[in-house]
Amino acid sequence: MLIDTRGLSCPQPLLMVYPHLSGSExxxxxxxxxxxxxxxxxxxxxxxxxxxxxxxSEDVIRLELRK
Length: 67
Known about the structure:
The chain is an alpha+beta fold. It has one domain (2-66): TusA-like domain (Translation Initiation Factor IF3, 2-Layer Sandwich), CATH 3.30.110. 28% of the residues lie in helices and 30% in strands. The protein is built from 2 helices and 4 strands. Strands 1-2-4-3 form a 4-stranded mixed sheet. The two termini are 13 Å apart.
């Protein structure tokens, strides 16, 4: 699953991702600001997910959430 949160400010990106953290499907999230990256990473870790960051471009990071 890919969730694109580019252009959105928190808490909207976190609210888009949070409902999916109870599932077991891999989630990729595109973010373009540090606050969203930090908040989504923190929530994922609290829910037992591993998070890997991959640079998509100069301004966009792909967060790969895996159980």
